[in-house]
Design goal:
Chains A, B: One of its GO terms (cellular component) is cytosol. The structure is a homodimer of 378-residue chains. Helices cover 31% and strands 27% of the residues of chain A. Chain A is α+β, with helices and mostly antiparallel strands and 378 residues long. The relative contact order of chain A is 0.11. Chains A and B meet through α1, α11 and β16 of A and α1, α11 and β16 of B.
Chain lengths: 378, 378
């Protein structure tokens, strides 16, 4: 009996599950937000994931429900669970990917290394935190941020006035998350996959480079990470996956500090941009592993096929050209590059695809990957 | 402007083009023979590829037409070309994949190494060939054979009487192909891809093991092939691709004889079973390369990701179980194995999927691949 995995959300993460599902002979069915989404090939319909009846009707046709994003409201998730539909990750875990204040509180309880943080409800409370932390801090909205949105460096208590006002108008109470401005050497990301029955596998920790709050480049494995940094990163991610009961893929974004600590920045409970290199660079991609994990199938090995992989995001440019339009030159100049188009309408700054190169020599890999990606710059 | 590749035929070869098309952001549209075919996810409709109007209507909606098989009749192919629709491979090349007598004659003209052969129209002519070749030979129908069908070892001129009778009743005249029974050490296969504009790339030559006329195992690269055998095989395939004007993928099945010759056995002008290892084992898979070639895009590199790859076909068993039904045990015991299900109804002897393992040590690779494939035996 073939299995069907239902994916809520039709973005590029759902899209990249389709090749893995085809190879495994698993049916994938996407509930897309709109017509023409990136994962439209596998979309049986369009529907609003905020609407419990829409999501229930979709979920009743599949064997397990998983996600392209973490925005499905808790009451909708709980309605699925109440009907006995397997949901991975489940609502109790997803809660911590949906709310950064709950995440910080829970990770602190678990004794995991996080930046100094506080929940602040007023500019006065923010002022206290600033005073205690050298006059600068990072303020984040607890919910709804991504790709640098909902994150702001502040130097004065009034710098977040608009967010405090919005919280007050929201009427639900609540607070902003304020964190110390971490003095980091670089950013890392650790991918792990966990089955409902408990098995966990980890990929090598990777280095991520952000530009304007958006992931720009990923190097796998992170250079000079073998040993302590790799062990610390894997241990942190495994403890989070187990501590929060995550099922499926978990990505943990980390800071490697200038004083050699590794601190947890953000979590994502799904395939994540920092793991795209695994499509070409690892025996098991994060997309295949996510499908295996949510179906509670045994997990694949996570080693690298070549010593180095570099992934570079392609952002849309102002001219609306797609990656496909520019393949002729890019492929001629970079025959080792793997091109991944999300088949999305190109808009300035929008992630429309990525390029990965794998090889023995990191300098050469980086040269080829950056060169190939440059053909798609607007 | 996204490109659309139209594929005639909805089998597993069309299916395995879909992941590559998704990654490249190329649209793929399949004209399937029936509902529920292996490539149904990309099928916009069902139609008879013998019917020129059906195929023309399909072809007008795509940028280039290619194939899952070589059975589209020449008049249909020529109607597409007459309308200016790009067809790769084109009818002038496909002719030689459709008719083994024409293929043997053309390869002989080109001076390529082939077994001794003759076109025989009567048992008496077959008898002469048998007498000249030690009393044994291989008789093949010129058209329609695959997976060992239409191929027979004969020792008497009467052993092919039924085929001679069928030819006579067919009324189109014609002949059978008779070939010397080659004394071979092993069978090899050489994949190349050629663009319409002429560029050609070759993968390493592979060793194939047949059972009951069906490909059972493929080892890439062929053991002990580096040097002369690899050069000969590549040279033969390149000369065939250029000599016959092949565009897209070409697979050349070869005999390595006990007296160290390399002879051409069969041709296929499409992705081929002997190239499935490239999905997991090469930087560029034969499926991605076929799409690049038929769109006349620059070709990707064809090196191996790991020193050895072994692909094993999974045949359907009598119990009707699918690969997916047996994943739990297979994946637990063989976490390095890559599983590929064609999502076809399981019937005894039918190719329903394959397993590939890549690694550094051929003995270990073979042990894991055979072990993983064994879980799916009926």
């Amino acid at each position: 009996m073939a299995k069907t995995v239902g994916v809520i959300g039709g973005g590029q993460l759902a899209r990249m599950m389709i090749p893995a599902a085809l190879e495994l002979g698993i049916t994938i069915d996407v509930l897309a937000e709109a017509e023409g989404m990136s994962a439209r090939l596998a979309a049986s319909g369009v529907g609003d994931y905020h609407d419990v009846d829409t999501v229930l009707a979709f979920a009743r046709t599949v064997d397990v429900v998983t996600f392209d994003h973490e925005h499905v409201p808790q009451p909708v998730l709980r309605a699925l669970v109440d009907e006995g539909i397997p949901v991975h990750p489940g609502p109790d875990a997803l809660l911590y990917a949906q709310d950064k204040l709950l995440m910080r509180a829970r990770l602190s309880e678990l004794g995991l290394p996080v930046p100094d943080w506080a929940a602040v409800e007023t500019p006065a409370e923010l002022d206290v935190f600033l005073t205690d932390h050298g006059g600068r801090a990072v303020v984040k909205t607890a919910r709804g941020g991504y790709d640098g949105k909902g994150v702001r460096v502040v130097e004065r208590a009034t710098d977040a006035d608009d967010w405090f006002t919005a919280l007050a108008e929201d009427g639900n109470g609540g607070a902003l998350l304020v964190e110390e401005l971490v003095d980091f050497r670089r950013e890392l990301a650790q991918q792990v996959a966990r089955r409902p029955s408990g098995d966990i596998v980890a990929w090598p920790v990777v280095e991520t480079v952000q530009r304007d709050g958006i992931c720009a480049e990923v190097v796998a494995p992170a250079p000079a990470s073998a040993g302590r940094v790799a062990e610390l990163s894997e241990d942190i991610a495994v403890r989070i996956a187990e501590g929060l009961g995550v099922t499926g893929m978990l990505a943990v974004e980390l800071f490697e500090t200038t004083d050699d600590r590794v601190l947890v920045n953000e979590l994502a409970m799904r395939p994540h941009n920092s793991g795209h290199w695994s499509i070409d660079g690892s025996t098991t991609s994060q997309f295949e592993q996510h499908l295996r994990a949510v179906l509670d199938l045994p997990l694949g090995v996570t080693g690298t096929l070549r010593p180095w992989s570099m992934m570079i995001n392609v952002l849309g440019g102002p001219d609306g050209a797609t990656m496909v339009d520019r393949y002729a030159e890019a492929m001629r100049e970079h025959p080792t590059a793997k091109f991944h188009s999300y088949d999305k309408v190109s808009r300035p700054g929008r992630k429309v695809g990525h390029v990965t190169v794998c090889g023995d020599d990191l300098d050469e890999v980086a040269y080829q990957a950056r060169g190939a990606a440059a053909f798609f710059e607007g």
